[in-house]
């Protein structure tokens, strides 16, 4: 009660307070809620002695479905009502590209089947394709895998020999890295038209094919005992294969949605956008489990932060450049600690 009574008076006189929560490793382990996660959100949703509501968003390098779908799933799993406007995923930032690419053919990587093209279409991309569509067009693009009957049935009937690809958006973590690396190399080497003669570097530059990775996470915490390889590992493998094939390195604008290490100032565009427009708070707290993204992003954007175990392993520690404001055992403890600081 002391926390909230003081906060209530303070909240009337001081700028508003808000929280951003990472999802994997903080709120969920795989599909299961982490102990304390629901309670932490309920506290902020006003389930406290003073019914004081403190705004928050969920800010994740994850993705794979529309924000609406993700909000529905999270509300059901956590038993807390979360709206789609509170969800910022790795690929949410691709909404910025809809105007430029609405009617251009784009390849959407991640997930399975046509999941990512459906997300892209919900953003307004009208010619969004997947690697399943490419294999349905010509299975010899990747001789080691054949598209299942159900995926074939849902695949778009496109002649990619007559469909120049203008951009590759890695929405979410690819499932079959071999297929995706192969088709990305094809698109770059052939200047956008899969299977056509390779083009030289000057032509590639002229074609300006955008390659955007939405999530820089090398590792992420699921429900396995040790962190798992994430989209950042896929990017490393793509770039290694591309380089090893003696191709010049494409101008891979690894514009992750929002969380990245401090070396990539582009990555903070969305953090700054969140600072300036989406979030009218001036006292902001990020709660995450990955020092390389959650804490590095918060530190560089001037937010306070609390680190919880997940990707972060207390026996290993944290790099000096990625020190959080505080380290807590779990998200509920993190929320209460931060509130204590704000009063
Ligand atoms: O896509 C899986 C992973 O990178 C998401 O992680 O911790 O940002 O929710 P997180
Ligand atoms: Mg995480």
Automatic annotation (TrEMBL):
Species whose genome carries this gene: Collybiopsis confluens
Name under which the protein is recorded: Uncharacterized protein
UniProt feature coiled coil, ranges: none
InterPro entries: CDP-alcohol_PTase-I, HAD-like_sf, HAD-SF_hydro_IIA, HAD-SF_hydro_IIA_CECR5, HAD_sf
Listed GO CC annotations: mitochondrion
GO biological process, any: glycerophospholipid biosynthetic process
Domain of life of the organism encoding this protein: Eukaryota
A Pfam family hit: Hydrolase_6
